[in-house]
Design brief:
Blueprint: E1 2-6, H1 10-22, E2 27-31, H2 35-46, E3 56-59, E4 70-73, H3 85-106, E5 111-114, H4 119-130, E6 137-139, H5 143-157, E7 164-165, E8 168-169, E9 177-178, E10 184-185, E11 188-189, H6 190-196, H7 203-214, H8 216-224, H9 229-243, E12 248-259, E13 262-274, E14 277-281, H10 288-307
Helix pairs in contact: 1-2, 1-9, 3-4, 5-7
Length: about 300
């Protein structure tokens, strides 16, 4: 499988590195406004290949995306001093208008993976700009938040996080919803297995894990300026799910017809992902408080998206 990555900065390069090490793509094309920077990233990553897989990685131009099955978009502009969030989104929408026009000219059948923040809004903007089916415009959404949730639960329970089935829903951001009531370990509900292991999920534990998930990005940014390895790994996992037509379940963001009474909103739910993109939604059963929190998250995203003039 051939993939493209537009934006060779920290997120784009981390995704390229993870995809290359996993060996889930035959070829990776890196595109950036600074061709020398993209070339340097590609060369550096290529030197890791003898230790891992045989993926070919190179810098290129949009025309080099011909035949790509997936294109990750990790491009965008930074916020200016005094600029509102809506103004920033409007400027980024224009960047995406140009980028997606070029991408779809040369790779009209590609699945678009959106990694630029705020990822849910940019996913909605991309779907509206391109007119593609929502299933083909996939935001990384809460895939990273879900991973953080599982890691922290795994640490508390002393269980491999890959055996924990727990999801974060809604916005990739402050209004995200940790679906505690639907969380499972293996085939058992979280609460019962935690009690049996002598590691109960108390109010203090919930608060600590919620803070660990919800504020992880702030702590990482404070410590080193940006987050990129985690999302790079998540994007590589989605590339593998699409390329392998896995029909595996991931908490990704797409334009969703209706959630908690809110219509046409980009947010994350557990979804089946395969070669054609998102195949089906698998919304978990939630308690009353989680339903209300998800509705609030959906409304926030809906209002923000509608405020952006395309």
């Amino acid at each position: 499988m051939k993939i493209g990555i537009v934006g060779a900065g920290q997120v784009g390069a981390s995704a390229a590195y993870a995809v290359a090490l996993m060996g889930t793509a035959r070829e990776i094309v890196l595109i950036d406004l600074d061709p020398k920077y993209a070339a340097a990233q590609a060369e550096d990553i290529s030197h890791a290949q003898p230790f891992a897989a045989t993926t070919e990685i190179r810098a290129g131009h949009y025309a080099d995306l011909s035949g790509a099955a997936v294109v990750i978009i990790a491009a965008g502009v930074s916020q200016k001093s005094g600029e509102t969030r809506i103004d920033l989104l409007t400027r980024n929408a224009e960047v995406f208008r140009a980028v997606t026009g070029e991408v779809l000219t040369h790779a009209p059948d590609a699945i678009l993976l959106i990694a630029s923040n705020p990822v849910d809004i940019m996913t909605g903007i991309t779907q509206r700009l391109t007119g593609l089916p929502a299933s083909r415009v996939i935001g990384s959404g809460t895939i990273l938040d879900t991973a953080r949730f599982r890691v922290l639960l795994g640490q508390h329970l002393d269980i491999d996080p890959r055996s924990i089935h727990a999801y974060v829903l809604g916005e990739h951001g402050d209004s995200e919803v940790l679906s505690w009531s639907a969380a499972q370990v293996g085939a058992r509900d979280l609460q019962s297995i935690a009690a049996e292991l002598g590691r109960p999920i108390t109010g203090e534990v919930r608060a600590r894990i919620d803070d660990g998930v919800r504020n992880a990005a702030y702590r990482i940014i404070e410590g080193k300026g940006a987050t990129y390895y985690g999302i790079g790994g998540g994007l590589a996992r989605l590339v593998a799910a699409i390329g392998g037509d896995e029909h595996s379940v991931h908490s990704v963001s797409i334009m969703t017809p209706e959630v908690e009474g809110i219509r046409d909103v980009p947010l994350s739910l557990p979804r089946i992902v395969g070669k054609s993109g998102v195949i089906a939604d698998l919304p978990p059963e939630l308690d009353a408080a989680e339903h209300e929190a998800l509705k609030a998250s959906a409304q926030l995203l809906k209002d923000t998206l509608e405020a952006v003039k395309l």
